[in-house]
Specification:
Residues 187-253 form the Thiamin pyrophosphokinase thiamin-binding domain. The structure is a single chain. By secondary structure, the protein is of the alpha/beta class. The protein is built from 7 helices and 15 strands. It has helices at residues 24-27, 43-49, 59-70, 76-82, 97-105, 121-132, 153-165, and strands at 5-9, 29-34, 52-56, 87-90, 109-112, 141-146, 170-174, 178-183, 188-192, 198-206, 211-217, 226-228, 235-239, 244-249, 253-259. It has a 10-stranded mixed β-sheet with strand order 5-4-3-2-6-7-8-15-10-13, with helices on both faces.
């Protein structure tokens, strides 16, 4: 029996005035998570598109400091009041006391989970979203994560591990330079490339185990029942040639693509 198909698109990064070749942005429910790294340039755009906005612990500092920096023509106090997270969640070891008090006074829900040291702040936020997001149908849910890349390598790997742990949920890790998401082996994948904002460089990396067979179409150097593993071949520095890339694999894969400045 053929595998079910899953589609992917970065249309959420297109300017609000730009038409998208796919209608994913119109049908998807977005939740936004901000981690404790510098905000990317498109943070205000994604904030406006999100149904729910969470800061993971020190991510609240980044919103408090970074949103006024991204909108230098506006009054900083008005920017901070407008970009108020719905929830701040985590072990509360990084958020500054004055930032916590500021958002608490504005009505942000502060959820202290300092008792839980076995999961990362991103894991805590994803668990909260998948459990408590007030929508009846979560099948079109996509969680966008800012600040998941850069900084300490163990943090980056912990964030990628969340993709693997929540393989049935669409989660996209974003920085100014690239996006990363999981292609679970339970599906074939059709990735719609938004060439005005992403590419051409991309990569496919097996996670959780080697791939004995991965096949792609739409890349400069396609894979044809190719084996990939650490210590062997991984598809890095590949190039997107077509508007749609298809991927089928017997292993979960991490897909990454560069973002244009």
């Amino acid at each position: 029996m053929p595998l079910p198909a899953m589609t992917h698109s970065s249309a959420f990064l297109l300017p609000a005035s730009a038409p998208s070749p796919s209608n994913d942005a119109a049908t998807t429910t977005y939740a936004l998570v901000v981690l404790n790294q510098r905000l990317p340039r498109f943070a205000p755009l994604l904030w406006a598109r999100a149904r729910l906005r969470l800061c993971a612990d020190g991510g609240a500092n980044r919103v408090f400091d970074g949103m006024p920096e991204l909108l230098p023509g506006e009054d900083p106090a008005e920017v901070r009041a407008r970009y108020k997270p719905d929830v701040i969640k985590g072990d509360m070891d990084s958020i500054r006391p004055e930032v916590k008090d500021y958002y608490s006074n504005l009505g942000t829900n502060i959820v202290d989970e300092s008792h839980d040291q076995d999961t990362t702040d991103l894991h805590k936020c994803v668990s909260f979203i998948t459990r408590d997001l007030p929508v009846s149908d979560k099948s079109n849910l996509c969680i966008l994560v800012l600040g998941a890349l850069g900084g300490r390598f163990d943090h980056e790997m912990g964030n990628i591990n969340v993709l693997y742990r929540y393989s049935s949920t669409k989660i996209v890790l974003l920085s100014d330079d690239c996006s990363i998401f999981l292609l679970p082996k339970t599906h074939t994948h059709e990735i719609h490339i938004e060439k005005s904002i992403e590419g051409p460089h991309c990569g496919l990396i097996p996670i959780g185990g080697p791939s004995t067979s991965t096949t792609t179409a739409g890349l400069r150097w396609n894979l044809d029942n190719t084996s990939m593993s650490y210590g062997g071949l991984v598809s890095t520095s590949n190039i997107v040639d077509d508007d749609i890339v298809t991927v089928t694999s017997d292993s979960d894969l991490v897909w990454t693509i560069s973002l244009r400045n």
